[in-house]
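Issue 218. Parser rejects a valid record. Input:
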Amino acid sequence: MNEPQPETTGDVSADGAAAARRADRYGTRDRRDAPGIRRRWIPATLIAIVLVAGLGIAFLGFQKYGPDDIDAEQLGYTLVDDSTLSIRLKVTRDDPSRPAVCFVRAMDRDGAEVGRREVLITPSDSGTVELTTIVRSSARPSAGNIYGCSDRVPEYLRAG
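Output the parser choked on:
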């Protein structure tokens, strides 16, 4: 098949006219507007945004679900009578110079809470403290556990 030959003349104005016709037909494209060059920053920007968001979520998750300042471990419990439970616990604090409070509870056979007590852990020299506390219950307890600990001690528990 015959291919049309491009118009070539030694005249510069003819080449300029042909370029103008091509530009009218197909448009002009500057090297800066090339798709490969112009859009390379989009994936890099998206990757940077995802990394920053991931680091922010990791930081917030670590603050909320990371290691606790106060760690409580139940060492055991003893049924004293039909309305009393003795619970042994070990509390480890990052800052033993600050008081803490732990909530312990007694539960019946169905797992319902039948007694609760707030235990004040006073400041000490040791980071780990073992203690035993008594929980009174409204029904016969069958188990006991530590509900949680906090360094926000209520005013009514503080020695004044």
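Fixed in the parser; the record now loads. The two ends are 105 Å apart (CA to CA).
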